Amino acid sequence: ESSLKVTGIDFLKSQNTRQHHTDGYNIKNLVVRRGQPFQVQVSLNRELRAADKLSLRFGIGENPVKNKGSLLSLKPEREDFNGWKISAVKKRGKECLLSVTSSPSAPVGKYNLHVKTGTNIYKPENGVIYLLFNPWCEDDVVYMANEAQRKEYVLNDTGCIYVGSAYSIYDRPWNYGQFEEFVLDACMYLLDKSKLSLTDRRNPANVSRAMSALVNANDDSGVLLGNWSGNYISGTSPMDWIGSVTILQQYYKTKKPVRYGQCWVFAGVLNTVMRCLGVPSRCVSTFNAAHDTEENLRVDVYLNERGEKLDMSFDSVWNFHVWNDVWMKRTDLPEGFDGWQAIDSTPQEQSQGLFQCGPCPVKAVREGDVYLPYDSKFVYAEVNADRVYWIVKKVNGKDKYFKVGTETQDIGKNISTKAVGQNKREDITQEYKYPEGSKEERMSMQRANSFLRPSGMMPRSGYASTVQTLSGNTQPLVLKEPVTKTGLHIEITNTEALHPGNPLEMAITVKTSTPGNWTVDLTGSCQLQYYTGKVQANLGTIKETIQLEGTSEMQIPLKIAPDAYMKTLSSLEDEVLILVTAIAEVKETNDKLTKETSMRFEYPPITVQMPETAKLYNDFTCAFIFKNKLNVTLENCKLLVEGLGIFKMTTFDQGDIMPGRIMKSEIICTPTRLGEKKIVAKLISNQIKGISTEKAITIT
């Protein structure tokens, strides 16, 4: 009697991956999602008989064992094993079609499939099956009911990340590329590197926390090395990336941290990793994000007597900060905290000894439940701190600190993400906080304050340890600035477009709104700063005394000549923002008010010329055109372009582009995938870092 042997196995890849929404992955192996059936066809050396023993064995990890749950032995028509089920769909001659359903809470990762018949074990070629989280499965904790959202947050491999400042938000296109070659393997390598137990791998909260640690290189030689120094000579400047693919491919090849990242790069890569593993994920940008090192909900800003910001605070307010929200049920928390969870891979603060952050329920931030894991105090402070302004004056040769204003509604503005299914900004501030000044907001703040350390109104900086308390005011947290006696108000705007090479023309408008004659001392300054709030150059200051009567206003111009800033602009490797700070003091009432606004430079656009549609594997030409409409030569221009499913990342050296000159580059494209595809282009030069664009084409 011949013993039963397997002669082959067909993973029915095209049928399975279509049903599992995994047909995008550029990989030989079968990729499926948990909790959903997939089929395999087993070929045998003879017909199957009633007495034959046949089992599929799925093993995960180095040496799988049954009692650890890392080896699953599935026999058709038997009761399930660890929540997995298997059944014979049909038996025809020597063929046997089997359906396998993994548990909706199975550990994610790579499983080795062997088929055991009697004492024979068959090991197929490409027998490794990748098992991912499943937002389409109601029993999976990452289940997302809305199809349009699943398309965006799981399957969309391009997007944009919002940057700039609250005054001028703009979008940076980003290629996530979760389906590109080696990206899934890089994510599996990170999962193995995380040393998460099998039980932890079942839970997206543990997996996302581990990934937030592994996307930065701190502690564990993870994917990206952060660098905010302005010197990127030994790597790629953070401004030069246009997507995650190159970064993850390089990391997977070398297993060494890739140089260099800043927050939007960390967030872009973490978004790729989470979507790749099957967890719905989005990049979230917060404008005026507080980095409050002492968890006292206060960030101190120190100004000199000219109104220029000094770099002397431990805390900082970033013009913008980008992190990620991932979608899941939180089975480890009380009811009410399911849905979006914030995670952050930018290395800012250690949490449980590692540079990791989250998952923190977005609802916990809104409700002020800042005792909930993980890192909810830190995230709460990022969007809710107060900004307190101090002037540092020399009195008898010693530094004295004078409080000149508190901004209670300035931090955590315009929280933004890409809208579902369209290229526009969606404002999600209301998911993170109640409306400023509402009853719910007040209750949420009181809740949060009961878990946070209250702070006395003491200035705090590296140099401020010897200061006496000012005005004896040690109440924790002023909920609302008292309305000043004069109704004093400041607005800062630009009066002309802020083009590099032109004078920067801005204005400070001072308003009063109560009866009386008011003498206002106005101090204004203009500086260049990095998005992290670090000052790079002082460009100029003004000091004026103005007279206002009753309800009236006056506009004071602030103008900076090109010579004052162009040299700095050309020497920096990062994009900088223009920071204008104004201090107004009313002589008669001693009212003081401070206001700051960051603005970005405006640039001429890149245009992309190509057909609207193209046929699979048929070449088409794509042209990139840029006209330098500025009054300055752009030196050492590089054009970076990438089109997922069309062409790999390509760099064109363009040399110097003089004012008025037009640059044109062409690339021949061969589409290898169907559907809507995007081409992303970015132009960088010594003077300008931030010109980018994207254009879509439909491949039929």
TrEMBL record:
Its cofactor is Ca(2+). SMART domains: TGc. Pfam families: Transglut_C, Transglut_core, Transglut_N. GO terms for molecular function: metal ion binding; protein-glutamine gamma-glutamyltransferase activity. Its EC number is 2.3.2.13. Residues 255-347 form the Transglutaminase-like domain. Keywords: Acyltransferase, Calcium, Metal-binding, Transferase. Ca(2+) binds at residues 384, 386, 436, 441. Binds 1 Ca(2+) ion per subunit. The active site is at 263, 321, 344. Belongs to the transglutaminase superfamily. Transglutaminase family. PANTHER family: PROTEIN-GLUTAMINE GAMMA-GLUTAMYLTRANSFERASE (PTHR11590), PROTEIN-GLUTAMINE GAMMA-GLUTAMYLTRANSFERASE 4 (PTHR11590:SF70). This is protein-glutamine gamma-glutamyltransferase. The lineage of its organism: Eukaryota, Metazoa, Chordata, Craniata, Vertebrata.
